[in-house]
């Protein structure tokens, strides 16, 4: 933004300087015409003086035309620069939109993996609840069997105890198996999520590195361009000064 303001200020200064020089040139033309009329009315050796004034007027007009051409060239260069800056800004916006879409997709995948982990944890809780219910049922069955065995006979009591022990063992085995499977699923989901996060971080780091490199290259190119422009302006100013001094010397000699 500051660079664009600086360029606009330079253009405004160039226009103001050009306008002032135009006024000076018109004043010089009017003054030359005035000198020509005075010398013509004086007579005598006025012929040579009039010729000298006419030569100077032609040089002034030529300088005026050259300045107009340079001003038009400067305007065209500024318009081309603005078009290039607009194009670069549009390309940057497109790259940023693509990067945002990619990050959005990564976030979507992360949320999906998180949901899968949540479901796995819920399944583990359900398995634990079933295990607890099975244990409670087994304990109740054992108590009932014990009461019945005590009431009926020792053999029935032994049979009931055996059935209760078998049921409890089976329930514990099923619950343990379900818990192991749920744990495996949760660990797999967590590993996948970690891998995706690491890939996203690596991609983001690469994008930041690339953007920094491009910005440095662009800044270097702009600095070189600015230095060349300043050198050209200095050369131009020196040439104009030399031309003005030569014209003044020629006029004085005449």
From TrEMBL:
One of its GO terms (biological process) is bacteriocin transport. Keywords: Membrane, Transmembrane, Transmembrane helix. One of its GO terms (cellular component) is membrane. GO terms for molecular function: toxin transmembrane transporter activity. Coiled coil: none annotated. Residues 64-254 are annotated as: Disordered. InterPro entries: Tol-Pal_TolA. The chain crosses the membrane at residues 12-31. Residues 73-175, 206-254 have a biased composition (Basic and acidic residues). This is Cell envelope integrity protein TolA. It comes from Escherichia coli.
